[in-house]
Design brief:
Length: about 350
């Protein structure tokens, strides 16, 4: 028997198989090639489909899977996201991510509230506000980025030596942000409360100028702005988050609807961050170099922040932080207390995820 005598039939069978498979895939994108199948041979139809569908498939994918929009402000703990992106881990895990940068935590919170982003890096103060205000947008805490271990601080001119000396003075802070938590705890530990000072609403970027001009007696701030202030030699730290370990926590907050509808992509996002954590442990020098560049800090300064001022939360401790009555839950309850004391949110309101 001549092995080549049925070659055309074999090719037709293979073409038919390829054609059927490709048409089934393209049908999921709403592309119908059935009308063409009566006019072209299988081989020519396969070629036509491949040529015309290369653009169509891209359109199909982008339409059904828009990028996850992740809002962050400048903060070293959030750089694990940019590290994962720079290493290509999001793409490898099958999720498209757009990092959207904002100037402050307050700006980031408003972006989630107005639907400009799908998730944000933030603190428990913003999380409470998003959920607790009347008509607020439900959101959930999905993971923990870090605990502040000295990075969040109250800075003042050197002539002011104690927290008690801030009584009746203007203290600059983002009123609807983590500064409320830090100031509230500092005053509590000094035997005072938040009504004993004059909280002065200030954008994070304006803190340096306001201190220089004497408009505020102290500033509640964090890197890289705190690094800039301390560089001058004119200011010192009155209080920092090292004195309340494990209480100031940076978290990944996701819009409730997005959490339900895009759970698979969020799982891929988590896997990419876990891999970035592993890269930081095994290739620390390169990881620090990548992250420091975005923060506009030197490698030495960024290393100091990670070593001395914040504690990144590893993948194997996520459940510990997020459990009922765990660190995040405690921080959420305190945040609600301070926000209620200032009249920013109604009494008795708590995110359902952490309600007693």
């Amino acid at each position: 028997m001549n092995p080549y005598e049925n070659r055309n039939d074999v090719n037709q069978d293979r073409s038919g198989f390829r054609l059927g498979m490709i048409i089934r895939i393209l049908a999921t994108c709403g592309i119908d090639f059935s009308l063409f199948s009566r006019r072209f041979s299988p081989n020519s139809l396969v070629i036509s489909i491949l040529l015309t569908s290369s653009i169509s498939m891209q359109g199909c994918g982008s339409k059904s899977n828009p990028p996850l929009r992740i809002g962050i402000n400048v903060w070293p703990g959030y750089e694990i996201i940019s590290l994962a992106q720079s290493l290509g881990y999001f793409e490898e895990e099958g999720v498209s991510v757009d990092i959207v940068e904002f100037d402050s935590l307050s700006d980031t919170r408003r972006a989630l509230e107005t639907g400009k982003v799908d998730a944000i890096g933030t603190t428990t103060i913003e999380f409470v506000m998003i959920n607790a205000r009347p008509g607020g947008k439900p959101a959930i805490v999905r993971r923990v980025f870090d605990s502040s271990n000295g990075a969040d601080m109250i800075i003042a001119p050197k002539e002011i030596r104690t927290i008690a000396e801030l009584k009746e003075k203007n203290v600059g802070l983002e009123v609807e942000s983590v500064g409320v938590f830090l100031l509230g705890r500092a005053l509590e530990l000094a035997g005072m409360d938040i009504q004993n000072v004059k909280p002065a609403p200030a954008h994070h970027l304006a803190m340096v100028e306001m201190l220089e001009e004497g408009k505020i007696a102290a500033a509640v701030t964090y890197p890289p702005r705190s690094v800039e202030l301390l560089r001058t030699g004119k200011y010192h730290v009155l209080f920092d988050s090292r004195q309340i370990p494990g209480e100031v926590i940076d978290i990944f907050v996701v819009d409730g609807k997005i959490a339900r509808e895009r759970a698979e992509e969020l799982g891929a996002f988590d896997r990419a961050l876990d891999r970035a954590w592993g890269y930081l442990q095994n290739q620390r020098e390169d990881a620090i170099r990548r992250m420091a560049k975005r923060e506009r800090l030197s490698v030495h300064e960024f290393e100091k922040v990670l070593s001395d001022w914040i504690e990144l939360t590893p993948p194997d401790r996520q459940a510990e932080f997020l459990k009922k009555d765990g660190p995040v839950s405690s921080s959420v309850l305190r945040s609600a207390k301070y926000l209620q004391a200032l009249g920013i949110i109604p009494d008795g309101t708590l995110p359902s995820q952490f309600a007693p």
